[in-house]
Amino acid sequence: MAFVTISGYPSSGKSRRALELAQFLSEKITSPSYEGSCSTVEVISDDSLGIERSAYDESRSEKPARGTLLTAVQRALALNKIIILDSLNYHKGFRYQLYCAARESKVRVCTLYAVATPDLCREWNSSRQDGHRYTPETLENLFMRYEEPSSMVRWDSPLFTVAWSDESLPNDSIWEAITKGNIKPPNSGTLNVAKAPSNALHTLEQTTTAMVSSIMAEQAAGQSMGGPISLTLNGGTKAAVCLPARNITLSELQRLKRQFVTIHRKAITLGTTEKGSVDWGEESIAKKFGTYIEEHVKSE
């Protein structure tokens, strides 16, 4: 249903805000007046995944920690859930990854920015008694590297900023965003590519070669004076092509064949994001090649 990213300085009160929001949302979806499909509110955090604060001491340990967070979010996203990610989320590139994951799952998104001054964060960090304290060096490093969310970029919008002095969250506005906001479709970068069958390249080469041979045979037999002709390929596959009112040379057909094969080889080897199934069978290839010949052969 929705995904909420919480971002802020280390020890800025993000976890407190996450619990406040989770409690509010849980009350909303269990209210007798609620008629939506959401049935669960889940908070994912460093603590819930067993990620230690020391993971942020250096980049080589932070990268797998972010990977763990992303994987957990991707697994949890669902149309009947509200997922709240309680972590630093200070890197805009990582927030963009989370945004793409949410789009792929077709859920609404918003960002909650928990604001506190560095001095307050230092004070709160030093007074922690739960064993989740950042080292002073890591704390200062994270302050310097923090990339503030912006309402001007799509992956942080809609953005709700909450200061340390605010007594409550903008709960109603957040509820409006995650229940009535626009659901953006996945972009092409997040779509799963449709892979061609293992014999597609062989079929592409064999079918186009057979069509070239059949067209040359028709012309040699004097059966083609231009216009549409029917071809029978190997295995009885039927194909049709409309030719100009002249004989086409073998070199012309071979050039068109090479161009056609080159164009389609990339789609076969790397996959395609075309909607629906992509047919790489002999009949489909023959039809596409026939159309390609009609569009690219010169009439004179």
Sequence of strands across the biggest β-sheet: 2-3-1-4-5
User: What's the order of the H and E elements?
Assistant: EHEHEHEHHEHHEEHH
The helix/strand class is alpha/beta
Radius of gyration: 30 Å
The overall pLDDT average reads 88
Q: State the distance separating the first and last CA atoms.
A: 60 Å
Binned, the helix content reads 40-55%
Q: If you consult CATH, what is the topology of the largest domain?
A: Rossmann fold
How many helices does DSSP assign?
Answer: 9
Give a count of the beta strands, DSSP E runs of length 2 or more. Answer: 7
Largest sheet: 5 strands, parallel
| Uncertain residue ranges | 272-277
Count of all domains: 2
Residues in β-strands, percent = 5-15%
Overall 3D geometry? elongated
Any idea of the CATH class of the largest domain? Alpha Beta
> What oligomeric state do the depicted chains represent?
single chain
For the record, the CATH architecture of the largest domain stands as 3-Layer(aba) Sandwich
- CATH homologous superfamily designation of the largest domain: P-loop containing nucleotide triphosphate hydrolases
Task: Please provide a brief summary of the model.
This protein is of the alpha/beta class. It has helices spanning 14-29, 59-76, 92-104, 118-126, 136-145, 171-180, 200-220, 250-270, 282-296, and strands spanning 2-8, 40-45, 81-86, 108-115, 159-163, 227-232, 238-243.
